[in-house]
Design brief:
There is one protein chain. By secondary structure, this protein is α+β, with helices and mostly antiparallel strands. The chain has one domain: Alpha-Beta Plaits (2-Layer Sandwich), CATH 3.30.70. It is 41% helix and 24% strand. Strands 2-3-1-4 form a four-stranded antiparallel beta sheet. Strand 2 and strand 3 form a beta hairpin. It starts with 8 loop residues before the first strand and ends with a strand.
Length: 107
């Protein structure tokens, strides 16, 4: 079974995080995902996790580029979502700008 069907987009978020801060950061990522599910006008799947090498982050699956763009616009405009992202980064001793965000389009 494919992870995503053609036209869907997978967005990955990866940020450096000291090993002692990983559990707290992941707990905050989970809170942020729960907030998204309750408040975002665009439904998308999201899973938190730890990348090989200790980076923390999440993987999101969006139905289309348009849906992803709407989700990104909502995230940028939502003060609580932005504050949560800032808190996740700060708990790891980095900033949001230090997170690597990559977009993969399924074909």
């Amino acid at each position: 079974m494919p992870l995503a069907k053609a036209g869907q987009l997978i967005v990955t978020y990866k940020g450096e995080c000291p090993s002692g801060a990983v559990d707290g950061a992941i707990a905050k990522v989970k809170e942020t995902i729960a907030y998204e599910r309750k408040n975002s006008p665009v439904l998308y799947a999201s899973s938190p996790g730890v990348w090989a090498g200790g980076k923390v982050g999440a993987v999101d699956v969006h139905e289309s580029k348009e849906a992803m763009d709407k989700a990104f616009a909502w995230q940028a405009a939502d003060a609580t979502w932005s504050a949560n992202y800032d808190e996740i980064a700060a708990s790891c001793g980095v900033t949001v700008a230090d997170f690597e965000v990559s977009i993969f389009e399924a074909r």
